[in-house]
Design brief:
globular, alpha+beta, five-stranded mixed sheet
């Protein structure tokens, strides 16, 4: 079992690595992170990061530390309740959107972005990427970025 402190440090490294990587890649030139969503009490039931590209389309970022893995969780919403969903899948995105809709009473921004993500799913314009920090001792050493294929070809 991993120590909770190590887990938090890995999460923080993953988040910062994702920010740096997104800002450095030509593919995301002009993109900006959306920062007006309130944090959840324990940081779960939300996307690690949400970005908007220069064309106005949303990008969901799954940020992982060097040892981080994609996690499973209980699904939520009309289509995914009662199932297990894994990070990096369309089912996971829909689950987080359902979680966001549940928080809409407390934070109108969640309602706004949930609706926008839902529309982007329908239009198949939503992008979902994994940014994983590279293993190194004590300093930032870069990150790998991979695109999740959440829509069928």
């Amino acid at each position: 079992m991993r120590h909770p402190l190590n887990s938090k440090l890995g999460e923080a490294l993953g988040e910062e690595a994702a920010r740096k990587r997104m800002l450095l890649l030509k593919e995301f030139d002009g993109a900006r992170e959306i920062t007006d969503l309130l944090d959840t009490p324990n940081g779960s039931r939300k996307f690690d990061q949400l970005w908007r590209d220069r064309d106005g389309n949303l990008i969901v970022v799954e940020a992982k530390g060097p040892q981080g893995t994609l996690l499973w969780r209980q699904g939520n919403g009309d289509l995914d309740s009662g199932t297990l969903v894994k990070q990096g899948t369309l089912e996971y995105v829909r689950t987080i959107v359902a979680d966001m809709e549940e928080r809409a009473l407390f934070s109108p921004e969640y309602a706004k972005y949930a609706e926008e993500i839902d529309t982007a799913i329908k239009k198949k314009t939503l992008r979902y990427v994994l940014v994983q920090a590279t293993e190194n001792t004590g300093k930032y050493a870069g990150a790998e970025l991979k695109h999740f294929k959440i829509f069928e070809e």
